[in-house]
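[Q] Does anyone have a clean structure-token version of this?
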Amino acid sequence: MSNYVSLSFNLWLLIFIVFLFTTNEQVKAQGKEDQAADLMEVFIDCQGGCDINYIRQEIDYVNHVRDQLEAQVHVFITRQYSSSGGHIYDLSFTGRNDYEGINNQFQFIALTTETEDEIRKGLTKSIERGLVSYLVHTDLGEKLDISLKEKPTNKNQATGKDPWRNWLFDIYANGSLDEEQNRKRFVLRSGLEADRVTEEWRVGTNLQLNFDELKVFADSSNIIYRNTHRHSLNSRVVKSMGDHWSSGLSGGFYTSTYSNLKERYYLGPALEYSLFPYSQVLRREITLAYRVSYSIQNYYEESIFNKLGDTFGSQSITLNVRYRQPWGSIYSSIRGSHFLKDINKNRLEINNNSSVRIFKGLSVRINVNFKIIGDQIYLPKGEASLEDVLLQQKQVATAYDLYVGGGLSYTFGSIYNNVLNTRL
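[A] Here you go.
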């Protein structure tokens, strides 16, 4: 009987201790929720290239919400490659509710020589600077300590004495080895990029070397082997002609065992019109480009037209539409081309990559790439073997190429996104 009483007493004592601990934790949690409720609610809407976890960790004096409709301040960030090889982040701050009418917009430039840590620190500082105009209207405004550091003058830029004369070079190489008991693949990619960009001119050259070797061991005496390469050299010169027009000249070299192209040389001018000023390219872009090109190409094997080479002129027109807005992003491109002497040898390409927010929590993503192909004059004559098709050793004739992808995502629950926990 005494043992039963002792056991009951210990059990009730344990329940009482758990109750006190739980109540204490709930009080602490409620205190944090009450404190969080007094903070400004911010939604960081980044279209790529942002370390969101780091930003949330460093900017811990606001409430990070997971939906833009719940935010008092919407920070919309887009990223674009800069002329020097780095990135330009366009930051747009939109105030809502109590902060209606308080809007900011500026840029953060990430240099190509900066590390990922330096970039995320610089971007976070830029976000913090943009939030100051909102924080001054909160209880945290009295705790702000603002200081100004005078940046030293860049003497090279000020005097125009740039030893590289605005040229930027990038050399890269990467390889991979994927090996199993009955299969081995080696891939090597390398290249060189050289660009020079000024307000009036853009000059660039891109060299790419690609090797791909695959061995499949069917048995001890049967080895299926594939060895392909694809190399290219592309150069262009573009001249600015105001806020809406630009003209250019491009040329290059291309070789591919897969496409039966032993060598291909091309050269031609181009003219482009932008509906919006080029300065708005980070947010919206509609351009129409016309190109004329003259090509000379030779083949590894005799083509389906019984030729070892061709010389021809071609023309193309391309419409690009790109929008990056708080409701999502849309990129669509339509390109039509044909040979000058034979309009029946033509190609139509349609590309679309869109991510659109339908309503709170629901987003839809659609990817469509479609080609109508009628200009494969380089294909080798004869039928490709099953081995060539399976190993993608040779390109085969096709009238079209279609890829369709998409998806839906719906998020619901707590509006707050403050907690950072990366365990396991």
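[Q] Thanks! Anything notable?
[A] The CA atoms of residues 368 and 404 lie 5 Å apart.
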